[in-house]
Amino acid sequence: MQIDVYCGVWVEEEDVSPVIPAIVSLRGNRFMLPSILVTGGAGYVGSHACKALAVAGYRPVVYDSLSRGHRGAVKWGPLVEGDLHDRDRLVAAMRSHHVAAVMHFAAFAYVGESVLSPELYYRNNVVGTLSLLDAMREAGVATIVFSSTCAVYGIPENVPIRETTAKAPLNPYGDTKLAIERALRWYGDAHGLRYVALRYFNAAGADPDADIGEDHDPETNLIPLVMRAALGRGDPLQIFGTDYPTRDGTAIRDYIHVTDLADAHVRALACLAGGSGSMELNLGTGSGHSVRQVIAAVERLAGRKVPRREAPRRSGDPPELVADSTLARERLRWHPQYSDLETIVRTALAWETRSAHAG
Questions:
Q1: H or E stretch including 62?
Q2: CB within 8 A of 184, min separation 6: which ones?
Q3: Could you give the angle at the alpha carbon of 49 between the alpha carbons of 45 and 52, nearest 5°?
Q4: CA 201 → CA 82, 157, 189, distances in Å?
Q5: Is 45 in contact with 147 (CB distance < 8 Å)?
């Protein structure tokens, strides 16, 4: 029997999830799967994380107001409907489900909306998270994996972007995420909170089994917009900027498959369970794809042309955002498995086609 050590946790080769073991708790005389509170677990990345948790042997408990999430995306554990500002409900959920740790995805995430309504973002993302952290203290839960973003960097001077790159958010959305990261550090110093903040780049794709996928209203992410234009389910695609200093004049982004993101969150949880210290990590592939490359991939796999029109650049859009994820690969032993552009588009297309038939 081969045994390895991963972030301080002993792993047996024949475990169901040999790299990301669940830490089984003993209550009374019964073994119980550890419960993880997943705020925003009815959303895009959160629901994929719930599936990854279940596969790894955890019991995801979704805490979601369903204001922007989907009840149908909650498939791998119980749902507690509630708002982040309801501290008493949060404490009750943690205690009644014997929660061992928290994964925090509950945030508003539209950049444009954050610029128009900054008060909405600071109230929900920052004040709501402080309510969650205080509820965790009251319930005796001391570990959290936080869904952060590359938007904390703004327009970087150098690419690929490392964790040490200067933080200069260009919008309230990115600023609220950075504020939470800073709060986590201070809570760690004052109260012993341990955390991993995962700054991921462009989440994309869908569950390879098409169980769940991307379902935003309104949709602002490039890949679903390209697919909907190709399938005749949306407006022609607008290409914002064709004069960037890039290989084909369009903006380049680092697309990371949502299943790989979910895997990284579970690995981060296992690291914390094994006693690791707090850290902030980038999640990306280290290579980028232009808007035109994404369009070409969708046209090739969908077998249809993408109606499009060119538009001026949007203010604040950097020419290129690509991650240096060396630290995540080293500390989490994380290696993206689904994040080549073809797999991202193929899984997203399968989900889009399935949801179209279901609708």
A1: strand 59-64
A2: 133, 144, 146, 193, 195, 197, 278
A3: 145
A4: 28, 17, 28
A5: yes
CA distance 147 to 128: 14
Predicted TM-score of the model (pTM): 0.90
- SS3 of 100-165: the string is EEEEECCCCCCHHHHHHCHHHHHHHHHHHHHHHHHHHHHHCCCEEEEEEEHHHCCCCCCCCECCCC
The set of catalytic residues is 173
The encoded tokens of residue 81 equal: 């409907």
Q: What is the pLDDT of residues 73-125, one digit of tens each?
A: 999 999 999 999 999 999 999 999 999 999 999 999 999 999 999 999 999 99
- Which of 83, 201, 62 is CA-nearest to residue 135? 83
Decide: helix, strand or coil at residue 38.
strand
Which token pair is 353? Answer: 């086609």
Please check whether residue 331 is in contact with residue 274, taking contact to mean a CB–CB distance below 8 angstroms. Answer: no
Q: Which residue has the tokens 């390209």?
A: 226
Q: What is the C-alpha separation between 20 and 11, in angstroms, rounded? A: 8
Residue count of the chain: 359
Residue 160 contacts residue 323 (beta carbons within 8 Å)? yes
